[in-house]
Amino acid sequence: MHVVVAGQGYVGLPLAVRAAEVGHRVVGYDVDERRIKRLAVGESYVEDIPAERLRPLLDSGAYLPSADPADVAGFDIAVITVPTPLRDGVPDLSYIESSARLLARHLRPGATVALESTTYPGTTEELLAPLLEEGSGLRAGVDFHLGYSPERIDPGNPQWRLENTPKVVSGTTPEGLAAVDAFYGQLVESTVPVSSCKEAELAKLLENTFRHVNIALVNELAMFAHDLGIDVWEAIDAASTKPFGFLRFTPGPGVGGHCLPIDPSYLSWRVERALGQPFRFVELANDVNSHMPDYVVRRLTEALNHRQRSVNGSRVLVLGLAYKKNTGDARETPAARVVELLSRMGAEVRGADPHVVVDVHVAEPAIPGQRTPDHQEGGPLASVHRVEATPEELAAADAVILLADHDDFDYAAVSQHARYVLDCRRRLTGTTVEVL
After folding, report:
1. Non-local CB neighbours of 96 within 8 Å, separated by 6+ positions
2. Per-residue pLDDT tens over the stretch 114-136
3. Which of 115, 210, 372, 421 stands the most exposed, by the fewest C-beta atoms within 10 Å?
4. What is the end-to-end Cα distance of the chain in Å, rounded?
5. Cα separation of 249 and 233, whole Å?
6. Distance between CA atoms of 26 and 425, rounded to whole angstroms?
C-alpha cells in the first residue's frame, strides 16, 4: 500500500521506517526541509533509527522523505504524528489541523486516516473528522475509514520498541477499527482494539498521567525526606522488594519530553472545560514536577554556602542536558530551567552531554511559518557553554550537577575529580557526592 506518515520526528520516523520494512511504499512527509535533506542522504536524527537501517529503504525506494505536498497524493493509509503542544495552558491543535487539511485534498474513497498525536478525548471525531470531510467532500465512516492509535514510543529504550510494544487501536466505526487494526497488525506483534476513539485517546492520557502523578509523589517525598534526615532512595529500595501492590518510581530534577510536562494537562483542560471541575491530581503533579529544577538549584546553593562559596561567580558543570538518559531529546528538559536559574544568579555554567549534539534539539515537525513547539533559539540551552566531561573540566568546577545519567559518562572520573557533586539520579558514590 501507499502509506503517508505526516511528521518525521521521534514518533513518525520509526513508524515510517517500520512500515517500509514490512513492504509498504512510504512517504515520510515533513515541512522541515532541513530534516528531509538529512533523511534523503541517509542521516538519521533519531537514536532509535540508525543510518544502517535507513539507507537500504532509501536505496530500494521503499521510503521517500519529502517536503512536497504532491507526494502525499494517492495514499491508501495516512498517519498523523505531529506535535500537540500547550499554549498558555490551552491545547494547540494547529499541527493536527494543518495535516488534516493537507490530507483532505488527497483523500480518496476507501482510504484510511489514523491519528497518533496525543490529545484530549474527542479530538478524532470532533475535530479531525469534520476537517477531513470538509476538505474532501467525503464522509468519515462511510466513504473513508478513520481511527486513533496512541503512540507509545520510548526514545532510547532498547527493550521496548515499536515492534514489540502492544498497540492500542480504535476506529469511528467497526469497519474503521478493522482497517486501522489490519494496518498496525503488520507493524507490531500485538494490537489492543478498544470500542471507540475516545477510549483510546483517554488510555494514552491515563498512561502519562499515571507516571506524572507518581513521579510527583516521590519528588515531593524526596524533598521532605531530605529535611527530615531520611534516605528516600533506601526507602524506595526497601519498598520495591514488595512483590505486589507497589511500582517503583524514583525522584529526579524534573520531567521532560512531550509526554509528562504536557499530556496530563490535556486531560485536565478537557475535564475543566467539559465538566467545570478541576483535575486536582494533575494540577498538583504539575506544580510539584515543574518546581523540581528550582529545588535542585536551591540544594546546590545550600551546598555551596556550606562550603563558603556563593553561586555568583562559581563555575558549575551540568552533566546531561537531555530530559532522559541515553537520548539526545532535549524537549522540555529540566536542564533548561536549571541552567537558566544558575545563569541568572551569576554562575558560570558549562554543560556536557554526548547525545545532545546541538544546543536545542528540534524534535518535531512544524507548520510553515511557525516555530516548532520545542524550539528555544536564544534560550538557556542555546547559550550554555558546551564542554566534554574531562578530568580537567570536572576538577575546575566548583560544583557538578548530574541531571541525565547517560551511560557514556565516566562516573569513576566524576567521583575522583569533582570537588562537589549533586547527584539527581543516584548514580554516584563518594565523599564529595550528595544525592538529591
Report:
1. 80, 82, 84, 115, 117, 119, 123, 127, 128
2. 999 989 899 999 999 999 999 99
3. 210
4. 52
5. 10
6. 40
- Residue found under cell 525526606: 225
Query: 3-state class of 357 per DSSP?
Result: coil
Is 424 one of the catalytic residues? no
Reported as a single tens digit per residue, the pLDDT across 38-52 is 999 999 988 889 999
Q: Pick the residue with more confidence: 255 or 421?
A: 421
Q: Residue 285 corresponds to which cell in the numbers above?
A: 503533579
Residue type, 176: G
The letter for the amino acid at 18 is R
What CA–CA distance (Å, rounded) separates 119 from 267?
8
Decide: 402 and 381 in contact? Cβ < 8 Å: no
Catalytic one among 259, 335, 394, 400? 259
pLDDT for 332 equals: 85
In three-state secondary structure terms, 227 is helix
Cell of 254: 524534573
CA 246 – CA 127 distance, rounded (Å): 39
The torsion angles phi and psi of 191, rounded to 5 degrees, stand at: -115, 160
The letter for the amino acid at 273 is R
Cell of 135: 476538505
- Is residue 414 within 8 A of residue 402, CB to CB? The reply is yes
Q: Residues 6 or more apart from 296 whose CB is under 8 A from it?
A: 253, 254, 334, 338, 401, 403, 422, 424, 436
CB contact burial 270-287 (16+ within 10 A = b; e otherwise) = bbeeeeeeebeebeebbe
Contact criterion met (CB below 8 Å) for 183 and 134: no
Min mean pLDDT across 243-257, 298-312, 354-368 is at 354-368
pTM (two decimals): 0.86
In degrees and rounded to multiples of 5, residue 272 shows phi and psi of -65, -45
- Contact in structure between 128 and 117 (CB atoms under 8 Å): no
User: What residues are paired with 191 via a beta bridge?
Assistant: 167
pLDDT at site 372: 38
